[in-house]
């Protein structure tokens, strides 16, 4: 459970910090403050998945929004810390009533293992799907109010939706809501609504992914083939649907929010959605002020700019291009993501060594994320490689394969900044790869082509693909290696580095013996025809090479007119 701590009585109208203090400084504040006015557990940052309400999906960067709120609170004097776990709630006896009252929390720094107490006049439980976990710390016999529901989302190429238009249908074939909307230059589609257990690691199921694909097919022209291979990422978020404990109808699930106050004074805010988060906060703080006799002044958050918003303008990116020599696409991304803080990122950008762009080395070629964002992300409390690929950049949500390709460089950059040794780097790589494999749909994607995949091709197709394969396997070995591919590429004057070739062959090398056999190649082409696999680099490379070889015109060598 993540923590955000807010000392409401000392809240000021002007920032007390030019920049949010470091995580280490924040933890010192938490440990050394005798008592806070308000302690917020969660603050909306819990869980690795995200299930957004449809209104915000189009252009909303939920991770950035959540972080911007925390950073803004820190600048205005709140003590905030991520990677903190609530071990238990603290209680004291009220001298007037003799009853036990919640008075803080026993906290554990997950990164160091250190435990310490944080005391507060009021404790707010804002832990989303983990709502009842904290409520049962207060009273183990309390009735659960949260009914978690899994919402699976998939990301597909941008051509599945117009740039500024999406579709939402509240009545699908089985009564659920379906949508597909433009998001981060891709298309996001969803969603499912299935009862689930609460977990830190929700996993999208193949059944839910196929449900979404089948519904999307109903809305597109019949000449557009909706392919399973076009799913670039998939994840499951957990919605904290709630029942109101004060309602007579305790079985009725609400998609709105509920504020509950326990006998011991624990305030719980549950349910709700991104589009109503300010209303949720207002109702919660009003309840806290009333229940705990807190001193409240006028609200200072109406019209308050979040981190990066004060000097932002629609043309800010032009200054980034002109002043720093960034690519226009990269500059637009930085301006949209960081606002006026984009200049801080640009100052950290590495020189490319090219004529243009001058600075801004990309993490992967097809996305505008640059290496400087890794360094800047650490300033914004990024502690792990998973933080960087999912909650600072959105690579994991946009394309799991691209995220995996960027991981080694991201870990190298983070290790340099955070003084990781080789063992720690390996641990981060392994953890991030497991995250992509299980939680972001890489496992489901990779299972579309396995050594058990059937070959379902017409005889004419098999002959055509065998002919293509043997242009690479010139000596009829029955398999091709990197050497074979390099030989063909050199013959058509195409250069490709060996590491890239290793990656390309490894995608199709199903038995991982360092070579692609004819059977594996036919399995790949069959999966492509059925739409289970798309964008195979080896298939495209071999087709292009074959076309180049077939276009070659033989040069006649016969003598003519007595010439030499």
Structure description:
- There is one protein chain.
- The termini are far apart.
- 38% of the residues lie in helices and 17% in strands.
- It has helices at residues 23-32, 54-57, 62-75, 131-138, 206-217, 277-292, 316-324, 328-338, 342-348, 372-379, 385-392, 395-398, 400-418, 422-439, 442-446, 459-472, 482-491, 498-508, 518-529, 537-551; strands at residues 3-6, 36-41, 79-81, 84-93, 100-109, 115-125, 146-156, 167-169, 178-183, 186-190, 194-195, 233-242, 257-261, 267-271, 479-480, 516-517.
- By secondary structure, it is of the alpha+beta class.
- The relative contact order is 0.09.
- A hairpin with an 8-residue loop joins strand 8 (167-169) and strand 9.
- The strands form three sheets. Strands 1, 2, 3, 4, 5, 6, 13 and 14 form an eight-stranded mixed β-sheet that branches. Strands 7, 8, 9, 10, 11 and 12 form a six-stranded antiparallel β-sheet that branches.
- The chain has four domains: 3-46 and 56-145 and 245-292, 3-Layer(bba) Sandwich (FAD/NAD(P)-binding domain), CATH 3.50.50; 148-240, D-Amino Acid Oxidase, Chain A, domain 2 (2-Layer Sandwich), CATH 3.30.9.10; 316-445, Helicase, Ruva Protein, domain 3 (Orthogonal Bundle); 459-551, Recoverin, domain 1 (Orthogonal Bundle).
- The chain has 20 helices and 16 strands.
- The longest helix has 19 residues, at 400-418.
Keyword list:
single chain, 564 residues, alpha+beta, FAD/NAD(P)-binding domain, D-Amino Acid Oxidase, Chain A, domain 2, Helicase, Ruva Protein, domain 3, 4 domains, 8-stranded mixed beta sheet, 6-stranded antiparallel beta sheet, 17% strand, globular, disordered N terminus, EF_Hand_1_Ca_BS
């Amino acid at each position: 459970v993540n923590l955000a701590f807010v000392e409401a009585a000392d809240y000021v109208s002007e920032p007390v910090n030019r920049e949010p203090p470091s995580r280490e400084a924040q933890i010192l504040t938490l440990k050394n403050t005798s008592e806070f006015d308000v302690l917020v557990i969660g603050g909306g940052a819990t869980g690795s998945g995200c299930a957004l309400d449809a209104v915000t999906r189009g252009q909303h960067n939920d991770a950035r929004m959540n972080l911007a709120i925390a950073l803004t609170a820190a600048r205005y004097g709140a003590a905030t810390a991520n990677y903190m776990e609530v071990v238990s709630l603290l209680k004291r006896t009220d001298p007037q009533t003799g009853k036990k009252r919640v008075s803080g929390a026993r906290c554990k720094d997950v990164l160091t293992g250190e435990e310490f107490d944080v005391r507060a006049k009021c404790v707010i439980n804002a832990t989303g799907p983990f709502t009842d976990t904290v409520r049962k710390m207060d009273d183990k016999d309390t009735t659960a109010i949260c009914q978690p529901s899994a919402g699976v989302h998939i990301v597909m190429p941008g051509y599945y939706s117009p740039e500024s238009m999406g579709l939402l249908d509240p009545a699908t074939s089985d009564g659920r809501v379906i949508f597909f909307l433009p998001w981060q230059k891709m298309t996001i589609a969803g969603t499912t609504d299935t009862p689930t257990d609460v977990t830190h690691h929700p996993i999208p199921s193949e059944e839910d992914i196929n449900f979404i694909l089948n519904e999307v097919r109903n809305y597109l022209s019949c000449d557009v083939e909706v392919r399973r291979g076009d799913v670039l990422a998939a994840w499951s978020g957990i919605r904290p649907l709630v029942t109101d404990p004060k309602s007579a109808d305790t079985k009725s699930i609400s998609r709105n929010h509920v504020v509950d106050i326990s006998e011991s004074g624990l305030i719980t805010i549950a349910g709700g959605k991104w589009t109503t988060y300010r209303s949720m906060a207002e109702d919660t703080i009003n309840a806290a002020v009333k229940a705990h006799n807190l001193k409240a002044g006028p609200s200072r958050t109406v019209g308050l700019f979040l981190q990066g918003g004060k000097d932002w303008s629609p043309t800010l990116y032009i200054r980034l291009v002109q002043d720093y020599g960034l690519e226009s696409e990269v500059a637009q991304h930085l301006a949209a993501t960081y606002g006026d803080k984009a200049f801080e990122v640009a100052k950290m950008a590495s020189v490319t060594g090219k004529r243009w762009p001058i600075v801004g080395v990309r993490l992967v070629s097809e996305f505008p994320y640059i290496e400087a964002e890794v360094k800047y992300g650490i300033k914004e409390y990024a502690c792990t490689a998973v933080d960087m690929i999912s909650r600072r950049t959105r690579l994991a949500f946009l394309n799991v394969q691209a995220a995996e390709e960027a991981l080694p460089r991201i870990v190298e950059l983070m290790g340099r900044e955070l003084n990781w040794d080789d063992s720690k780097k390996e641990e981060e790589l392994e953890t991030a790869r497991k995250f992509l494999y299980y939680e972001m749909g890489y496992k489901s994607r990779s299972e579309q082509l396995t050594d058990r995949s059937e070959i379902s091709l017409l005889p004419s197709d098999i002959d055509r693909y065998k002919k293509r394969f043997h242009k690479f396997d010139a000596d009829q070995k029955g398999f091709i290696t990197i050497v074979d591919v390099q030989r063909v590429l050199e013959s058509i004057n195409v250069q490709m580095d060996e590491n890239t070739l290793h990656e390309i062959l490894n995608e199709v090398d199903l038995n991982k013996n360092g070579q692609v056999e004819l059977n594996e190649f036919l399995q790949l082409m069959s999966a492509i025809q059925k739409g289970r696999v798309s964008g195979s680099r080896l298939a495209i490379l071999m087709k292009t090479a074959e076309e180049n070889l077939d276009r070659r015109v033989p040069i006649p060598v016969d003598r003519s007119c007595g010439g030499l």
